[in-house]
Amino acid sequence: MTQAIPILMYHSLAIKKKGTVLRSIHVPPKRFCNHMKMLKILGYKALSMKQLAPYLRGEKQGKVVGLTFDDGYLNNLTHAAPLLQRLGFSSTLYVVSDLIGQHNVWDKHKSIDSNPLMNEQEIKQWLSYGQDIGAHTKNHVHLDKISEPDADIEISGCKQTLESMFQTEVSDFCYPYGHFNQHNIEQVKAAGYKTATTTIRGRANYNGVYSDLFTLPRVFIPYHTWPLRFYQKSFSAYEDRRVHKS
């Protein structure tokens, strides 16, 4: 019997005023801390995608959740890495390889606040805390809206850059914006990745059915995720009933 596994999706860890554009992608650091402590109290362990893979394939069983951070924000290093190390948790930071040390330029046209991304040394520090990195393309592009050759460069080039820069295997991919097509999936496989996450809502391996490792659903954790809602989203069918791209 397969187990339903929530793969938690976070972005930025920051306090934002009401009315902030796309406030939902931020989670206050204290609230994130409470989420992680709840997992610990309940006997769950948060794992990076690399460590979660055997559970997704049904090779292991246990009380686990996947933990992912999209984009590579500096505040993840500040507010998450030390806490995760203390709790014995691991996670995957999906890095935009050509924007390392810059900021979220892909959000500029939406009037979204500038948010610094980790630089090379900060990502190395992230890795030193026992955390992992994955690929989020070279430039945070809509893969399904660019040519196939350009998409291939974005997908495979990101992996090559990160592996060369940080001397670590990059085996996990995340589709920017959650946008992809069938050819993009095949490109991700051909590039040598072992998993790929989406913004499709739900838990992996729900209802005894193995999820496709290259279109994995996730549980989006927005700003106002209080303890009860966090529990519902992670450990009930709350998200599984909302299967669509968010």
Automatic annotation (TrEMBL):
Superkingdom field: Bacteria
GO molecular function annotations of the record: hydrolase activity, acting on carbon-nitrogen (but not peptide) bonds
Keywords noted in UniProt: Signal
Major subcellular location class: secreted
Record localization: Secreted
A single Gene Ontology CC term: extracellular region
Signal is among the record's keywords: yes
All copies of domain NodB homology, residue ranges: 63-246
Record bears the keyword Signal: yes
GO biological process, one term: carbohydrate metabolic process
Signal peptide region: none
Name the UniProt record assigns to this protein: Polysaccharide deacetylase family protein
Organism from which the protein derives: Pseudoalteromonas caenipelagi
